[in-house]
Amino acid sequence: MPRVSVIMPVYNASRYLRESIDSILSQSFDDFEFLIFNDGSVDDSAEIIRSYKDERIILQDFEFNQGYAKLLNLGFARSRGEFIARMDADDVAHPLRLEKQFYFLSNNPDHVVCGTNYMVIDGTESSNLPTDDEEIKLCMLSITPLCHPSVMIRTQTLRDHQLFYIPEHMPAEDHELWVRLSGYGRFHNLPEKLFYYRVHDNNISLKERTETQKQNLIDSQKNYIFEFFKEAGINEMEIELLHQLFFKESGYQLLELERIGRLVQQIILKNSTYPVPSRRVHHFLEEKFHYRCTTSTYLGLKAFIVANKFNIKGIPIMSNVKLLAKALIKYRSTSFQGPI
After folding, report:
1. Residue among 73, 78, 68 nearest 40 (CA)
2. Are 153 and 112 spatial neighbours (Cβ–Cβ below 8 Å)?
């Protein structure tokens, strides 16, 4: 039995496919099977795959397009390895990627997912993803802190809890899976940049979402917020306020900021238990709330006042001074309408 199963769906990827396949076949760790699913490609992707004679490659060729998430689930079901490594047909793996991920998961049985940091191909951008479980699960409140095609997952955990991708959540199917998987073990990102991510117009993650997909993502985000803060006894309205805090970038009304600030204060005073130590949760909430106030200086001095109204103590003095300066600049161009 191979120790690792690498899963790669392919759809019209001939331009980048050979480089991607070569990066897996040339890994320093070679005890793997390479499950490649050609998803009804109409270019020469299938011919490129068949040109390889490596016995680790297991190709399944579909005449018609099945869909990305469906083939990932098929890969989950057919994998024989102790761990499943994801790979996309337009990305490139560092030669040490599989070795380092396998070593980490083998030596940390309480961890169920291991991702890596990445570089953007043909660009200068690189990631600085959180590495430890606590920071990853905290960041999941507002972002997806795992590079999906870079991850390695413990196969038995998926099967024990019957975890698969839900196609209706495309192109955020990974976030929804992480939400469910987060309750069954620890997450980790290797600090090294062991993955090269390609950004182009055909990236699934960059595709425009339908209204249903947008709502599915919101529902998944709110579900994670509920699970994270359930010991604090938050209700549906408070889940909505926290969702605004974590995901609404701009356009806050004064009343919204007041309600969010009051809720942050209440959560801190309750000092409940969370998947992450409470001090880190409280600091995260304080920083998020203060940041939302700094992006709301169109409210003038009221933005500064509301940021300091709820006895939130974890904000550096200089951050507060900068907020005051921005609010004063805005105040000069508007009329101050009295105290809050």
Report:
1. 68
2. yes
**Amino acid identity, residue 230?**
K
Q: Residue 7 corresponds to which amino acid?
A: I
Is 90 exceeded by the pLDDT of residue 8? yes
Question: Which token pair is 312?
Answer: 């939130």
- Every domain of the chain and the residues it spans: 4-206, 211-332
| Whole-number Å distance between alpha carbons of 88 and 105 | 21
In tens, the pLDDT along 110-134 reads: 999 999 999 999 877 899 999 999 9
Integer Cα distance of 60 and 46 in angstroms: 10
**Are 227 and 137 contacting, i.e. CB atoms less than 8 angstroms apart?**
no
- pLDDT tens column, 61-107: 999 999 999 999 999 999 999 999 999 999 999 999 999 999 999 99
Closest CA to 29 of 101, 133, 137: 101
Q: Please say whether the structural domain 4-206 has been given the CATH code 1.10.10.350.
A: no
What are the Cα distances from residue 310, in Å, to 245, 256, 305, 338?
A: 15, 14, 10, 18
Cβ atoms of 39 and 65 closer than 8 Å: yes
> For the chain, what is the radius of gyration of the CA atoms?
23
**How far apart are alpha carbons 193 and 129 in whole angstroms?**
10
- Polymer length in residues for the chain: 340
**Using CA atoms, how far apart are residues 136 and 146, in angstroms rounded to an integer?**
8
CA angle at 149 for the pair 113 and 154, rounded to the nearest 5°: 25
With cut-offs at 50, 70 and 90, classify the pLDDT of residue 336: very low
Summarised one tens digit per residue, pLDDT across range 249-289 is 888 999 999 999 999 999 999 989 999 999 999 999 999 99
Q: For the stretch 164-181, what's the b/e string if a residue is b when 16 or more beta carbons lie within 10 angstroms of its beta carbon?
A: bbbeebbbbbbbbbbbbb
* Number of Cβ within a 10 Å radius of residue 243: 18
| Residue 10 DSSP SS3 | strand
